[in-house]
Amino acid sequence: MEIIRLFCPVEETKRQKYLRNFKKVNPHVTSLSAEKCYHIQVSNSSALSTESLKLLRWILKGPQGDDNLSTDSHLSVKLKHETLFEIGPRFTFSTAESTNTVSICHNVGLKFIDRIEMSVRYLLTLDTNKIAESEVNQLIETVCDRMTQCRYTNENIPKNNFFECFTEPKKRWYYIPVMEKGAAAIRDENTKLGGFSYAD
């Protein structure tokens, strides 16, 4: 299993909308570059021939779009008053867009594609010398739905599959003393596993 990535610029109307929203939060924002990143999980990377990659690019660009997909990102921080962050779907579930795109891929013979998620990378330039992390977090709040999205970093971005950052439990099953402790045993286990509380 492997994840390959393809990049393309965000549509200009969306870029301008993002820029307006960022400026509302922080008036020091002067410019924005943004690109989409497609994270494509493939079960067999050797099956990704030139022909199948051409077909995949055609699907991702859309029927009327230009094929401006690249294997390299065009965004990087070069100045100290720039900041770059990436927002995408949480890794724990597959989005509807991924399900639909994978279904199309399978229907045209690209059976080795397991999942396709799209994130957006934002490169902001500010007119201040230094950007505080709290300011970056405020800007992220503008474009990130924390219920379904998260910030992608070098530490958490998936390399081979979307579930690699989740550690498997040491024990797959274990004994809960319900007969001895009753409902308290279930409540204790619920708390340990991060389940719903009474307030939820």
TrEMBL record:
The Gene Ontology CC terms held by the record are: cytoplasm
InterPro entries in the record:
FGAR-AT_N, PurS-like_sf
Q: Which domain of life is it from?
A: Eukaryota
Swiss-Prot/TrEMBL GO biological process terms: purine nucleotide biosynthetic process
Q: Which keywords, in A-to-Z order, does the entry hold? A: ATP-binding, Ligase, Nucleotide-binding, Purine biosynthesis
Sequence ranges assigned to domain Phosphoribosylformylglycinamidine synthase N-terminal in this UniProt record = 37-160
Which one of the record's GO molecular function terms can you name?
ATP binding
Q: Quote any Pfam family the record assigns.
A: FGAR-AT_N
Q: SUPFAM superfamilies attached here?
A: PurS-like
Quick check: keyword Nucleotide-binding in the entry? yes
Name of the protein this chain belongs to? Phosphoribosylformylglycinamidine synthase
What organism is the protein native to? Culex pipiens
